[in-house]
Amino acid sequence: MVLTGMIDIKEASELRRLVKDYRIEVADLFTQSLHKEDMELLAELRYLFHKRKKNGYHIIHICTEMEPVVSVGSLASYVTGLSRALQRKGNLVEVILPKYASLDIGDVQGLRETEMEFYSYFNGQLHANRVWTGVVYGIGVTFIQPLHYSSFFSRERIYGYSDDFERFTYFSRASLDYMVKSAKKPDVLHIHNWHTAIVGPLFWDVFVNQGLEATRILLTCQDFDSQCLQQPDKLALCGLDPSRLNRPDRLQDNTKTQLVNILKGGVVYSNKVVIMSSIHSKGTIVHSLSHGLEPTLAIHKDKLVVSPCGIDDSIWDPSKDKFLPENYIADNMKGKAVCKAALQKHLALSKHASTVVCIKHLWKFAIFFGLVRSFPMKKDSSMWCIFSDVSDVDLENLKAAIWVASRRNIQFVFMGASKTPKINRELQLFEEELKDENTRFINKYDEALSHLILAGSDIILCQSFHDAVLQVPLKAVRYGAAPVAITFNDKVFRNILEHDPGKTKFAHYMSTAFANLSLSQALDEIKNKPSHWNMKIMDAMSKDFSWDAECYDIHISAYASIKNL
Questions:
Q1: Which residue, 125, 192, 177, 15, is CA-closest to 200?
Q2: DSSP β-ladder status, 410-415 and 457-462
Q3: What confidence tens digit (pLDDT) does each residue in 269-297 have?
Q4: What is the DSSP code string of 132-149?
Q5: How far apart are CA 110 and CA 129, in angstroms?
Q6: Helix, strand, or coil here: 369?
Q7: Does residue 383 sit in helix, strand or coil?
Q8: How many CB atoms sit inside 10 A of residue 326's CB?
Q9: In what helix (H) or strand (E) does residue 336 lie, and over which residues does it extend?
């Protein structure tokens, strides 16, 4: 409305504050407003201006992924899951994304191009951009489309180009220019990974005095593997001063001192840094997993917090899962027996076998494998395993687990294929070698079957408990199954969980409940201590590991702490 001249900047700020503060679900407001013209919506907002209010934060994400519009890794589900949780609890959340040519716009409601262009600075000139707006799961989303640099986001892939720094630096600068132009004044500007970390120095060196004095910066790092090292003079592309920033206490890389480190700049120039990890504490990340950033993280350790991911319980919830023949809850697990029987019938497996094990394709390159047993607990047992992909080590561990389990009358189902042809050939040879009537190999993905496998399984074999993409351990406990890691460095992982202080609640729970369980131990416990096993499974199902739980609490606490600075 500001861009089209319907209202001025002052009224825009007041109305945005109204949307944030008013005692209704923000998602409901967006949904109800999609069919309305701007003038009609403006009249309603003005009418509501003096209604009852409550406190909340206005958060704007500047990011490169958001599920389901554009999803490559764990960032996409994180942005969407956290944003929806924040809005459910009375905060106003907006997301700014590049307008990729490959966007999946099917889930964007009310997508439209605004009538006016805005200009952003890059490489010594001002360049025009188009702005598109829409709503995703009740979250207002802005898509920025460069005109002169149209090729930046008209490509097949999202990442992996030689000019990724230029692409995402342009987007970061354009996002800030757009915010100033549209008079957005969020409480928190939430940036992500190295791709938008440049927003940190840009904000404090260029934009803070353009009406954003009350805004604070929070950076989320999914990990520190990718940091983006560049020649210092490239910082000038977006209007930064290389001589100011190419210093050890700012962006100069700790090891390759002739280069600047973009992610390091995000850490230095953010008020808070959230590190996403399901199993590691801050100390472990700083000293062992920082990939050269340890000196920087040590200096800024007081601004670091660790958070686990959450699970989308609108999709992954056995009490209301539309794909299950019968739903169930922790206090009534009868539906799990129904799900096992349905799974065995679907796969033409004997109902008299002890277990059913499945490996299937969950995401683009995901293989998973499960073992199913009946409820109430008897001597038979079940498991399921999901991998982002199968390496040589994973395959050998998997084969060993299958041979051990097959001697205990377990049924196995393999679904999906690896992205590595060699692994696919070895899986095919293994199938021929096994020649077991209790084994099935399925080379296609089935969404309904993926839910049925989870519901009918008792043990989930996973590569790692640190699984931000597929979230296997979270789904396991949600559906009443025990996650069991069979990774190569399993002992190291369990030792970290046991002895590393300062863990998240999720990490603490997993370490005490499941981290010391091997596959054989889990099967023995199911067989010999069924009552104890049942209690453990029901306790696991009762835990809330959704986005609204620990992940939300950590983030809202981080927002509160930096707003008080």
A1: 192
A2: unpaired
A3: 999 999 999 888 899 899 999 999 999 99
A4: EEEEETTEEEEEEEESTT
A5: 20
A6: strand
A7: strand
A8: 15
A9: helix 334-346
205-233 average pLDDT score:
96
Which tokens is 388 given?
Answer: 């982002």
Instruction: List the one residue out of 134, 147, 161, 167 whose CA is nearest residue 64.
Output: 167
- What's the rounded Cα separation, in Å, for the pair 114 and 32? 20
Asked if 508 and 515 count as a contact pair (C-beta separation under 8 A), the reply is: no
The gap from C-alpha 369 to its chain's centroid, in whole angstroms, comes to 22
Q: How many CB atoms lie within 10 A of CB 509?
A: 18
Return the ∠ at Cα 477 (arms to 525 and 139), rounded to 5°. 175
- Burial class for 115, CB neighbours closer than 10 Å (0-12, 13-18, 19+): exposed
Which segment of 74-78, 263-267, 270-274, 510-514 scores lowest on mean pLDDT? 510-514
The full DSSP string for 243-267 is HHH-STTTTB-SS-TTSEEHHHHHH
Cα–Cα distances (Å) from 492 to 460, 497, 528, in that order, read 20, 9, 28
| Residues forming beta bridges with residue 146, ordered by sequence position | 129
d(CA 353, CA 357) in angstroms, rounded, equals 11
- The encoded tokens of residue 293 equal 């950033």
Determine which helix (DSSP H) or strand (DSSP E) holds 272, and give its type and residue range. strand 272-276
Q: Compute the distance between CA of residue 319 and CA of residue 322 in angstroms, rounded to an integer.
A: 9
- Cα(466)–Cα(367) distance, rounded to whole angstroms? 16
Residue type, 381: S
Tokens of 77: 């589900």
Alpha carbon distance 404, 383 (integer Å): 13
> What distance in Å separates the CA atoms of residue 14 and residue 240, rounded to the nearest whole number?
32
- Both structure tokens of 473: 């351990």
Length of the chain: 565
Instruction: Judge if the upstream peptide bond of residue 501 is cis by omega within 30 degrees of 0.
Output: no
pTM reported for the whole predicted model: 0.84
Q: How many C-beta atoms lie closer than 10 Å to residue 490's C-beta?
A: 17
- Cα separation, 446 vs 360, in Å, equals 9
Give 157: exposed, middle or buried? Use CB within 10 Å, 0-12, 13-18, 19+.
Answer: exposed
